[in-house]
Every structure is written in structure tokens, then in C-alpha cells.
């Protein structure tokens, strides 16, 4: 058996093959949700992704007897390292066949590159920023994934542990049942908070309008609200412009409540959207020739599941009931659109404040994922 490791050039042609390997590996798996191919390719291209202003990266592919068998990207986020004072590399975009020789060679390449860059430890799976997928699945392998999370086979964590990687952080995920009306306690809290702080909920119908009014503020709020979370990389002005152009124009805006104070200053936002999991499976992550149809149908047709992509509340308003105001607005929208279930996506396992908001819903913790660390 011959194992070969090749570096991947950050060209569209080579990265298409890199991303395609990760999709082909899960062919026939009903729980795996592929990424949008063009999005993942451009994330790995320095000329497209503004995170490369402060990140370095190198992707590798493993070949077994000439056939693709694994992939990994080693990343150094200099901005985060400056904030933490650590010499830390990240690994991400990782997939591999169940073969210890392949896995060893793949990770050895990422670790050696990281050492050559002067790093002392490596953590992952993580991306360039929190907008990328992070956390290896360790529980919930029989649950349908979401567009915002990683799916991996059950054999992945065992290989990490075998190579000396240890737990660095865990995230948990919940699946909620949407109630048939706003819970009484939530409604009371929402009304109290609204009056006490003179808050109001804005709903937009135009992507251009929400971009113009609150595009920059929205992502600045995310930076403030998420600043102290594990591994957070503050979004730069260029990244903010990048994500405004990428996401705000495609959101189903009735699913996005914006909360402002009496002066119109942004206080909180909930970015939620109809689940694209089945649509991405049908399209295999491609827009053409018919992928766009499946995605639009999921966004604007009947869809019984919604993804809670993120909730951000200004630090001075956290733990004051603003989340209740967000969901008191969203629940009637969900009911009107036939939504029965909501996916929380990632929450740090020790983030009790965030998890407390699910007390109003019938819910179950159905997935867990992990970031691993190893000294180099």
C-alpha cells in the first residue's frame, strides 16, 4: 500500500477536487449535508476570502494507491494568536477514510507545516473564523445535519484520540418543537422587557434596506456579543462587507427580527432561516443545473424545520429577557409558515445562559461536537 501526501494549490481547479472528495466520501449517507461547493472553494482561496489578511493556511490531500483518501487544511489565525498570546495552529476541512496509515500521514503533514510556521499546538476542527464550520461530531451520528455544522463518520474521533489529541471544548445542539402559541411566561417577559427598555422589533421586506440600515451594525453586534466565546476571531471590516454581500440578500427576512432601542440603535438580532439540509443533499452542494431550484424551494416553499443560525444581543442587554422578545416575534411567523421544529446549531456546553432560553420549548439535546488539541 502506497500513501502519498500532496499540497493543494489554492486554485479553483485544485480546490474543486479537494471539496468534491469531502462530498463523495459520504455518498449515500442520509445524515450528511454537503456545503455549497463554490462557497467552500472560495473560503479556501486567498484572493476571495478576506480572512487571509490575518490568516495563513495550507491544504493537503492524502492518496492511497493513487486514489484520494483524505484531506485537511492547516490554518494559523494570527489575529486570534495575538489576542490570546498563544502559538496555536488550527486544522479544519478534514475528512478521511478509516485507515490509520492514511490518517497518520494526513495529520503529520498538517502538524509539520504548523511546526515550520513556529506553532506550539494545534486545535480543531476549526476554520478561519466562527463563520466556518467547527467541531467534530462525537454524538448524534444518526441525526440529519445542518448547513452550519460538520457531519463526520463515527470513526473520526477515535483516530484523533489515538494520535494524542485531547478534548479542548465541546458544543451541544438541541432540536426544539415549535409550540402552537407563544408560551405565557415568554409573552409576559417579552412585554416587560419591551416597555422597560423602550425596545421595538423591526421586520424588513427588502434585503437592500436591511443592508443599508443595519448591515455593518449587525456584524459589529456579532463581534461584541461573541467576543469572549471559545476561539472567536473578530470579523474585520472587509470580512463584514464580504458576509453582508454573501448572506443578507438571501435571507427570508420575516425570519429575521431586529430589535432596536428608542434611538434606533441595534440591541439584538435573530438570524434564522428555513432548513436547507435536504435541498443541499439533493443538489450535492451545487447550484447548477438544478441545485438552485431545490434551494429556492426550501427557502420559500413549505418547510417544517428552521435553523437558528445565530442570536446576538448587545452585552449591556444580555440576561435581561431580550431573547424572549426575539422568540415572541418568531413563533407566530413559524406557526404561520408550518414550521414544526427548530435546530439550535452550536452552543458551548457550559453556556448556561444561552441554553436557558430553550426552557420554553419541548426540546432534546441530540448532537455533541468537540474541538481537540495537541501539543506539537
Task: Summarize this entry quickly.
By secondary structure, the chain is α+β, with helices and mostly antiparallel strands.
- The radius of gyration over CA amounts to 21 Å
Number of strands: 14
Coarse shape: globular
Distance between the termini: 28 Å
How would you describe this structure in keywords?
single chain; 376 residues; alpha+beta
Characterise this structure.
The protein has 376 residues and is of the alpha+beta class. 36% of the residues lie in helices and 26% in strands. The protein contains twelve helices and 14 strands. Strands 1, 2, 3, 4, 5, 6, 7, 8, 9, 10, 11, 12, 13 and 14 form a 14-stranded mixed beta sheet that branches. A hairpin with a 2-residue loop joins strand 2 and strand 3. Helix 1 crosses helix 2, helix 6 packs across helix 11 (322-336) and helix 9 runs antiparallel to helix 10. The chain is globular, with a radius of gyration of 21 Å. The model has no long low-confidence stretch (mean pLDDT 95).
